[in-house]
Amino acid sequence: MSEKKLLATRAGYGQGLLDTGALHDDLVVLEGDLGAATGTTAFGKAYPDRYIEAGIAEQNEVGMASGLAAAGWKPFVTSFAIFTAGRACEIVRNAIAYNNMNVKLIGSHCGITPALDGGSHMCIEDIAWMKAIPGMVVLNPCDYNQTRLMVKKLYEYDGYAYMRTSREPVQCVTSMDDEIVIGKAQVLREGQDLTIAATGIMTTFVMEVAERLAEEGIECNVLNYHTIKPFDEETLIKYVRETGNLLTVEEHNIYGGFTESCRAALFTKADNIRTDYVAVEDRFGETGTRLSLYPIFGLDNETIYNKAKNLLNKE
Amino acid sequence: MDIIISEWKKLAKKIRIDILKMTSEANSGHPGGSLSCVEIIITLFEHEMNLGKGSDDPDRDRFVFSKGHAVPAQYGYMLEKGILDPEEIHTFRKQGSRLQGHPVKGRTPFTDFNPGSLGQGVSAATGMALGYKMKQSPQKVYVLIGDGESDEGIVWEAASAACHYKLDNLTYIVDMNAVQLDGATKDIMNLGDLHKRYEAIGFLVDEINGHSFEELLEAFSHHEEGKPHVILAHTIKGKGVSYMEGNYAWHGKAPNAEQLEIAIKELEEA
Ligand SMILES: Cc1ncc(C[n+]2csc(CCOP(=O)(O)OP(=O)(O)O)c2C)c(N)n1
Ligand SMILES: [Mg+2]
């Protein structure tokens, strides 16, 4: 099932646009002068008439997408997460969501892995910003294959949605044959000892940790939340009730992120669950590499492993 | 002045080599837009700005590197002038370095705003100039803007405010290298005639060759009471390295060891 080659989800997005764009000639891509980085350049080469360069003007890029949708096109708006979800946030809220336009918003270079550019380019707030908007679907696929498949799902979904993609190449833990459903978590592994719910590329690292734990005889459920909103409470509650514990893992600020969505579900639906989280502790990033920054931000495999073990040791 | 300019030309060459070395070693960064603004940086820091007692002097003029991805040009200048330790060239874009991918206030000398998100530095610089006016302070504010960056609406919102508030203590310098990230500015987003646009808003406008120290000095000497000043500096992206000049592929790509060697040789022999 899993392949060894490392691929970024931004590349999966680029390939997904080619797959789906070939079948539907109303799919248009808007780009904010970052095609070389977000993965849309190949689509622009293949379909120059359906590739709209908006320049370095993300607010207008999102605003124009609203109008293009009104004129009958199906726009995919692309820039870095910090600009799509951040810079243009209120325009997403009013021109897209409040006007109920069928526009797909893509934020690449999410999390802290646009590492060398430093703090200004990282985005650990996009999930919070986007999930607070009424009716916004928020997606965070875990690997190349899943992101590629998700483009088709996004095209078919009739409404507005945000998807974050990542710069960092990671191993594929899902297959192109997987059935994915927006709003339904994917169970990647089952086990009786511990439940780990993860989102985005962190899921691929969690799979490595789960493998290591299995070698020690500890069996984990790994729930891949490619959809953060609408939140799949049912799957979470089912597995958490079985193991009595939960570790959440995300590359986002602890405030407003995926962990908070899980907490909200537990708050109303499950008691006496031992929990812990792996997330960014309310701080800005700085220049580094993923391997140098992840330990500093407590997002590395060692931290995931230790927090998993700690949850079990408390029993 | 002649003597100074010949020194500045030597300095420009050294800074260009520093830019190439640091991006190459980091295997990351933006050589194209750094190489295009070297003469602008030198003229600002060597002549135009009042740097007071140094970076920490609260009364010195302010500098906002709004096209902050090109900061290797400023790092190169500071390395050559001893403001940074020569060894720090090896720390560019590395964990814990002062030489962050985009400059950071309090960490990087002569950094008055944390840029990275294009357009916002123009707005912040305009606010600084307004703030100094309101305090009747003589401090001046300079902001270096990209031509691609000028796509951003906030640049024009700031420009309107600069004229509305008659900020004659404010200078915009636009690095008109005609190239942005994915291609030529005229292909990505054609902004038309920036000279006429700035004039229509109410700026004092200069349009010059941004690699000519003489033209830069002349433009910086202009001032009109009650008007903000913009210098449209025509430059070449990747200036000095034949395979980089005018080529958008070198916006955000570092030279490898072999390419670095060729580039340094070209610069040294020029
Ligand atoms: C708001 C925003 N959008 C996009 C980017 C990504 N980006 C960084 S540099 C760049 C191109 C800048 O072109 P230009 O202003 O012409 O700079 P120069 O040619 O001087 O390097 C882009 C799109 C950004 N940093 N900020
Ligand atoms: Mg440019």
Key terms:
heterodimer, A: alpha/beta, Rossmann fold, 2 domains, seven-stranded mixed beta sheet, five-stranded mixed beta sheet, 14 strands, 22% strand, B: 270 residues, alpha/beta, five-stranded parallel beta sheet, 10 helices, globular, binds thiamine diphosphate, binds magnesium ion
Description:
The complex is a heterodimer of chains A (315) and B (270). Chain A has helices at residues 9-23, 35-38, 41-46, 58-70, 81-87, 89-98, 126-131, 144-156, 202-215, 233-243, 258-269, 290-296, 301-313; strands at residues 3-7, 27-31, 51-53, 74-80, 104-108, 137-139, 161-164, 170-172, 186-189, 194-198, 220-224, 227-229, 245-253, 274-280. Chain A is α/β, with parallel strands linked by helices and 315 residues long. Chain A folds into two domains: 9-164, Thiamin diphosphate (ThDP)-binding fold, Pyr/PP domains (Rossmann fold), CATH 3.40.50; 186-313, Rossmann fold. A seven-stranded mixed beta sheet of chain A has the order 3-2-4-5-7-6-12, sandwiched between helices. A five-stranded mixed beta sheet of chain A has the order 9-11-10-13-14, sandwiched between helices. In chain A, strands 1-8 form a two-stranded antiparallel ribbon. In chain A, strand 13, helix 11 (258-269) and strand 14 (274-280) form a beta-alpha-beta unit. The model of chain A has no long low-confidence stretch (mean pLDDT 96). Chain B is of the alpha/beta class and 270 residues long. Chain B has a single domain (2-269), classed as Rossmann fold. Chain B has ten helices and five strands. Chain B has a five-stranded parallel beta sheet, with helices on both faces. In chain B, helix 6 links the parallel strand 2 (141-146) and strand 3. In chain B, helix 1 (2-26) crosses helix 3, helix 1 runs antiparallel to helix 10 (257-269) and helix 3 (38-48) packs across helix 9 (213-221). Chain B is globular. The model of chain B has no long low-confidence stretch (mean pLDDT 97). Chains A and B meet through helix 2, helix 5 and helix 12 of A and loops of B. The structure holds thiamine diphosphate and magnesium ion. The site of magnesium ion has 7 residues of chain B, from loops.
